[in-house]
Amino acid sequence: MPSPIASYFTQAFGLLSLASALALPVPVNDGSPIRVLIGDLKTKITSPIGQSIANQLLGLETSQSSVVGTPPSNGQGLGACKSSTDPCCIYYSLSKDLSSDFTGPTGRCNDLARAAIRLGFHDAGTWSQSLAASGQDFGGADGSLVLFGEISRGENRGLEGIVAAAKKYQNKYGVGMADLIQYMATHAVDATQAAPNGLLPPVTGNPDSLIALFADKTIPAHDLAALLGAHSTSKQFHVDSSQSGAPQDSTPGVWDVSFYNETIQNPAPKGVFRFASDLVLAKDPRVSTEWNSFIDDQKHWNEVSQLYLYMNDSST
């Protein structure tokens, strides 16, 4: 069966050209800590699929599968999936809906697509290694942002539209909310409680606190530089309401590396809104070397930008 996150990005987010971002990463010896496994993957791998997921998280195996699934036959859509033996059958119809809803009139991703990327991060990012060690091993990519009303938290402002869309898709397709948000499992791993509060990065954070926050999610500074590239397609609406809708680079409809150079340009390109947290991290020596390596180098960023997959898989 294809890796669900690969299927999601290549089908639903095909307009973002993310397939190449899921290739096996090139090992980098920069002194960053070695990636670690968490949760059940740390002690209870009991199946070949579990081992494969662990290998992907450790960078030992590619996350992009060549296995071909079975789409609904004869144009019957959802009805055909009732008799299908392919557990991913229903996701072909869901993917068709997402591709339509996430594409703007020019064929590029729209604000709903950008919000979907942010929703995935905000649901997955509410896990903490230190809290888990103290017995609070919950949160992460479990759907709790939608299921337990975390949309009311300040850091989730602007996600109201995509949360409403997620509820609509769930009602139509009957899939679990965690699966719907991350599109990364064959069965639901929905939350049983709200995720811990205060574990998402503030746009006003300083380098030490931000790097420590992600390290607590097992993401070192080197990898954080790649993860921040998701701002290539983001827009802000609430940090500065006077510039509502301003993108973080000049090509918000394209999954490219313009963000890295335009963040450190002085002055910023016209119409681009830069987060204070991005500015300070771009200058921090623990991040800046890798940050600068992504400037005008799409291929290099593609090779290491599967950090979204790592964070979401490891926190499920």
Describe, in plain words, how this protein is organized in 3D:
With 316 residues, this protein is mostly helical. The protein has 17 helices and 2 strands. A two-stranded antiparallel sheet has the order 1-2. The two termini are 18 Å apart.
Number of continuous helical runs: 17
Return Rg in Å: 19 Å
* Overall mean confidence score, pLDDT: 78
Structural class: mainly alpha
Helix coverage percent: 40-55%
Largest sheet: 2 strands, antiparallel
pLDDT < 50 runs, ≥5 residues:
1-30, 184-191
Residue share in β-strands: under 5%
Give the beta-strand count: 2
Sequence of strands across the biggest β-sheet: 1-2
The end-to-end span amounts to 18 Å
**What is the 3D form?**
globular
- Give me the strand/helix succession: HHHHHHHHHHHHEEHHHHH
Keywords:
about 45% helix, mainly alpha, disordered N terminus, 17 helices, two-stranded antiparallel ribbon
Brief characterization of the structure:
With 316 residues, the chain is mainly alpha-helical. Helix content is 44%, strand content 1%.
Strand-helix topology:
Elements: H1 4-12, H2 40-43, H3 48-57, H4 78-81, H5 89-101, H6 111-124, H7 129-133, H8 144-147, H9 160-173, H10 177-182, H11 207-215, H12 221-227, E1 235-236, E2 246-247, H13 258-264, H14 276-283, H15 285-293, H16 298-304, H17 307-314
Antiparallel strand pairs: 1-2
Helix pairs in contact: 3-17, 12-15
